[in-house]
Specification:
The chain is an all-alpha fold. The chain is built from 14 helices and 2 strands; from the N terminus they run αααααααααααββααα. The N terminus is likely disordered. The protein binds benzoyl coenzyme A. The site of benzoyl coenzyme A has 27 residues, from helix 3, helix 7 and helix 10.
């Protein structure tokens, strides 16, 4: 798998003295910065991962945005609004980090809107009840933190630095979700049923967020060697399960996995088989909400055209005024 990732049509990647020096810097925990030499495959991997991460943040605003007008209280509405705005901000930091690698925002957005770039599978599931907002914060943001804390130590400086602030905000998101679940789980029988139903529907898709099993992960070997990823998909998935199962039990909820049980010998929770066919269907564009999500993004892009045009016209005007002042 590693040798596959190093294949480069230009023949420039993987074998020369520059590559050895680059790998030595990575091994020494040096940070790689935008103007440093880097192998093309490293650059491509980062553009792919950072931009897909950015797209996930932006598409991730949609399922929760769906509940802003229906949040049960003003306090809940304010917190949800802040969370969704944070996600927009995360998308922007991440697009900016990707742009330091020589790709433009326009190219990245085009890749999303034409369906060429992926975004996290999790955002292709619907938010059917208020409890889903709790489950997203608790499970989806919980999984995101588990995956993203190690990215704060990623070898590429701009990505690592953007992840530090993102993780702080994700931590608030996770707590607001768990608090919603706590209130529902301690509420009326109907509220408890809502919380249980949300866990039933979000549990397995949350486990899929960590990506395919290690044996099927195309990029893990190279990304681990380059210290973009610090843990494999399966290792992070297991850490997430180990941290989350006791939280669910504390809430008095049952996980939709009859095989789930604590393994005293390994110290981990053993879990059942993930439906990887479902994961592949969602990635291929055939999940419950894929079409709806892309249609919403395309509409937003078209409706925002005047804002982009106005911003460009304003910038051009400012430049002209500055040039005129310089000439005087
Ligand atoms: N969904 O070789 P692999 C959030 C793709 S947003 C879709 O293991 P890698 C939040 C993968 O891209 C959460 N696609 O890949 C926002 C690759 O396809 P390509 C997003 C997936 O990159 C709002 C192929 O499968 N977080 O936190 O080594 C509200 C083979 O996989 C998925 C990030 O993006 C998936 N679940 O590892 C709340 C974190 N899994 O690109 C929360 C940064 C895999 O060859 N990303 N694929 O066409 C990563 O850490 C890594 O990219 C992954 C995958 C662990 C996701």
């Amino acid at each position: 798998m590693y040798s596959q990732a190093l294949q480069d049509p230009t023949g420039a990647d993987g074998a020369g003295p520059q590559d050895d020096r680059f790998q030595a810097r990575i091994d020494a925990e040096d940070r790689i910065e935008p103007n440093d030499w880097m192998p093309d495959a490293y650059r491509r991997t980062l553009i792919r991962q950072i931009s897909q991460h950015a797209h996930s943040e932006i598409v991730g605003m949609l399922p929760e945005g769906n509940w802003i007008t229906r949040a049960p209280t003003l306090r809940r509405k304010a917190a949800l609004l802040a969370k969704v705005q944070d996600e927009g901000g995360h998308g922007l930091y991440l697009y900016a980090a990707a742009e330091t690698l020589g790709v433009t925002r326009e190219e990245l957005v085009e890749q999303l809107l034409t369906g060429r770039a992926k975004y996290s599978s999790i955002f292709n599931y619907p938010t059917l009840s208020w409890a889903d907002i709790g489950a997203i914060g608790w499970l989806v943001d919980g999984a995101a933190i588990m995956n993203q804390i190690p990215l704060c130590r990623c070898s590429y400086g701009p990505y690592a630095r953007s992840m530090i602030r993102i993780c702080k905000e994700e931590s608030f998101h996770q707590r607001q979700g768990f608090e919603i679940m706590t209130v529902l789980a301690r509420g009326s029988a109907e509220q408890q049923a809502m919380a249980q139903d949300a866990l039933n529907r979000w549990w397995w898709p949350s486990l899929m967020m960590f990506g395919p099993p290690d044996q099927q992960s195309q990029h893990s070997d190279a990304s681990m060697r380059w210290k973009i990823k610090r843990f494999t998909n399966d290792a992070l998935r297991q850490k997430f399960i180990d941290a989350t199962v006791p939280q669910g039990h504390f809430l008095g909820l049952t996980f939709p996995d009859p095989v789930l049980r604590h393994n005293a010998a390994s110290g981990h929770w053993d879990f059942g088989t993930i439906d990887w066919d479902e994961f592949r269907r969602v990635l291929a564009g055939d999940g419950p909400c894929n079409r709806e999500r892309l249609a919403a993004r395309r509409r937003a892009h078209e409706e925002g055209a005047w804002v982009r045009e106005a911003a460009l016209a304003h910038a051009a005007r400012q430049r002209a005024v500055a040039q005129q002042r310089e000439a005087e």
